[in-house]
Amino acid sequence: MLGSGKNNRSTALDQGQYQLLFDTVPQGIVFHDADGRVIAMNPAAERILGRPAEELVDDPSAEDHGTIREDGSPFPGAEHPSMVSMRTGRGVSDVIMGVYNPREREYRWISITAVPLFRPGEDRPYQVYTLFQDVTRQKRAEQALRDLELSSQAVEAVKAERKRLYDVLDTLPVMICLVTPDYGIAFANRAFREKFGESHGRRCHEYCFGLPGPCDFCQSFRALETGRPHRWEVRHPDGSVIDVHDFPFRDADGSPMVLEMDVDVTDQRRAEKALKESEAKYRALFDSTVVAVAIEELCFDESGTPGFALQDVNPTWERMFGWTKEEAVGRTGRWLKGTTEQDLADILLKVLETGEPSTFEDHLPDADRYYSVSAWKMGAGTVAVEAVDVTDIRRSQREAEEQGKLLQLILDSTPVAIGITDEKGGVVVDNGVLAKIWRGDPSLSGVADYACCRAWWPDTGEPVRPEEWPAARALRGETSTATFDIERFDGSRGALIVSATPIKDAAGKVTGTVWTNQDITDLRRTEQELKRSNAELQQFAYVASHDLQEPLRMVTNYLQLIEKREGESLDEVSKKYMDYAVEGARRMKAMIDDILTYSRVESRANGLEPVDMEKALSIVLKDLNLAISESGASVTHDELPTVLADRGQMILLLKNLVGNAIKYRSEAAPQVHVSVLRNDGEWIFTIEDNGIGIDPKYADKLFKMFSRLHTREEYPGTGMGLAIAKKIVERHHGRIWFESELGRGSVFHFSIPLDAGRYGRGSGLNKK
Ligand code: ADP
Questions:
Q1: 117 phi/psi in degrees, rounded to 5
Q2: Is 710 in the pocket of ligand 1 (CB under 6 A)?
């Protein structure tokens, strides 16, 4: 059969050799007849096609064996090279075809060459001989190569895609990074790098938190574990708070990662915290204030009429209005009345509309309580209403008003002129008495106007200058009182006691004065009369004692003469009577001397001068030398000051007190001590002895004229010493008193003002 080929040129091969070749060549060889039927195929063909020769040989449906082209599309039988060659009578070479090999269960790729066979003289082939070679391996290698090319393209595409993604992520303002499961940072966007810097290949825990191993608080990989986004919050060591959003993510090459988006919420958290704190603060204020506060919310009833419902109330409100918060919230009932003109709801509506706060006073007659109320807009439909219970204030105001009326009554009925001036000295208020005193309205609008009130200093007769009036001095911050002689507007004369005191504001600035004018004309007259009668009496005492001295001296002298001449011839009784008469006359002289001294305290007074009390005391001690040495007394003293006083009277004063201290001694030798201390504006001198003491019940009596507690036999004396001492001290505007107990010694004190001179005017102290 094979030997029937047209070109059996090589006669060198015999039939057997052909057969061997046919059976052993690695290429498949198939013969088709003119009808396309396979008439022969070699073992290589059978192997490549995966079918036994029997199945194909003479199989008219050969064309139906699943053949495909290189691009995978079906390869129709009519297009097979054998068929083309048969039809065209031309050879076809190197056609690639995929043939399904059922034995191998895969396609085999073959490269086919078809050669037409002709019988001599015929132009149509009677057979086609097909030679094909298994190129599957080569084809696979090509495919692999193509695949390889394709995958490198894919890698490029992935790279480009990734770059684009990274570029986009870089532009986002939030921090974004891609974390691989082994804690690597595949990417960190610009915002992320701005916060944490470059990662330089560090693991995420080291990069972001400086920790050598994974952070124990990390929740980033939960997204990978669950496959769902996970959100959590972390506080960075620098104090920032980060809101972390993790998403499971696959890279273009399919590798799992976490896409982490970090939002720095530090400021937001801080603001939230601050807000919370401030809310808490306001809440605390709301809850603890002594002011009742209610929040009212606008609402409408079924008919659409606007009203207000309580939204919140504080504890003070609960206490003040008697509803608990639970009872109150949501209620539309009125808890305040509103003003007389407007209902509460109308007031609140107006506040809401205008945004202007409203303040008013409310009186709830049932409870008889007054409230000071303020309402202000809080939000679109809410108004805060604040109420302070002012009942007590109102009541005390009422009381003050009543007291004011009472005061007015007193002011109106007092004979003293009382008034207030402004800071310039202008009279702004007075009780109307001033005009009565002056018999005309002095209309005073400032210190200069005081000149219209004619007044004189009583002691000097000099006119009082406007700036010397107590009100003018009060404007300079001084409180003072003065006595003036005046001429009223009707020309009549009188006397006034004028005083004024400054009114100061909280800063101590003088803002005005309160003054009084008291008409003492009548009082003055009485006083002057008293003075005159006193003076007359004094004059009488002086004249009497002075004039009595002369006859007394005569009596004494003649008695002494009689005693001298008739002494020897007088009998005992007459001698005794003579002694009595002489003694009586001497006592009378002493009394007259003392009365004279007493009356001279005022009438023969010297002016004030600095008196060294230490020197004064030494003079006294010299005078008392005899008494001191007789009694064995010791007189000690502190360092004594210089005082402004009448020198002679100071000596007399000390002499009387120290003399008494020695005279009224007990069994023991007298111990006398003179001390001094400086008290508020005065010197207080003290003469202390260890004598017989005095029963305190005689405190007042002792300083009266001729008062004595002892008989002449017990202790000599006239009873005038302490009376004179008192007069001297009082003339110096001081005081005299004693402390004692019987048998316990006595302590006499007297005071001398530091500036006795200030009593100068009218006191006679500075007469020279
Ligand atoms: P006189 O000493 O002349 O009696 P005084 O007026 O000095 O008069 O004293 C009045 C009386 O006060 C004295 O009689 C005496 O009883 C009492 N008296 C005065 N000083 C002392 C004293 N230091 N201790 C005890 N009694 C005194």
A1: -115, 130
A2: yes
Q: List, run by run, the mean pLDDT of 10-residue segments along the chain (768 residues).
A: 46 78 89 86 89 71 70 86 90 90 86 92 90 88 82 81 84 89 91 89 90 90 90 89 90 82 88 88 84 90 88 90 89 79 85 91 84 90 90 88 85 86 91 89 90 92 95 94 93 92 93 92 84 79 78 85 83 86 86 86 82 96 95 95 94 96 95 94 95 90 89 88 94 94 93 74 40
Ligand 1 pocket, residue 672 CB under 6 Å? no
Please, what CATH class does the domain formed by 2-134 belong to?
alpha beta
Residue 17, classed as helix, strand or coil, is: helix
- CA nearest 521: which of 486, 563, 568, 478? 486
- Looking from the CA of residue 703, the nearest atom of ligand 1 is 6
**Residue 671 CA, ligand 1 centroid: distance in Å:** 16
Q: Which CATH number fits domain 140-270: 3.90.220.20, 3.30.450.20, 2.60.120.1440, 3.40.50.300?
A: 3.30.450.20
Kindly report the protein residue whose alpha carbon is nearest to atom 13 of ligand 1: 708
Identify the residue whose C-alpha is closest to ligand 1 atom 8: 719
Query: How many angstroms does the Cα of residue 673 sit away from the middle of ligand 1?
Result: 17
Q: Is the CB of 591 under 6 A from ligand 1?
A: no
Class of domain 289-393: alpha beta
Cβ-proximal residues to 43 (8 Å cutoff; 6+ apart), any chain: 23, 53
How many angstroms is it from 621 CA to the middle of ligand 1? Answer: 18
Query: Would you list the DSSP string of 112-168?
Result: EEEEEE--TT-SS-SEEEEEEEE-HHHHHHHHHHHHHHHHHHHHHHHHHHHHHHHHH
Q: Is 692 in the pocket of ligand 1 (CB under 6 A)?
A: yes
Distance 618 CA to ligand 1 centre (A): 22
- Encoding tokens for residue 614? 């230490």
The CATH homologous superfamily to which domain 605-759 belongs is: Histidine kinase-like ATPase, C-terminal domain (3.30.565.10)
Extract long-range pairs of 472-481: CB within 8 Å, 24+ residues apart: 472/425, 472/447, 473/500, 474/500, 474/501, 474/502, 474/510, 474/513, 474/514, 474/515, 475/421, 475/423, 475/424, 475/425, 475/447, 475/502, 475/510, 475/513, 476/510, 477/502, 477/510, 478/502
CATH 3.40.50.1820 fits 414-519, yes or no: no
750 lines ligand 1 (CB under 6 A): no
Tokens encoding 219: 């929740």
Pocket test for ligand 1, best of 687, 695, 707, 722 (most atoms within 8 A of CB): 722
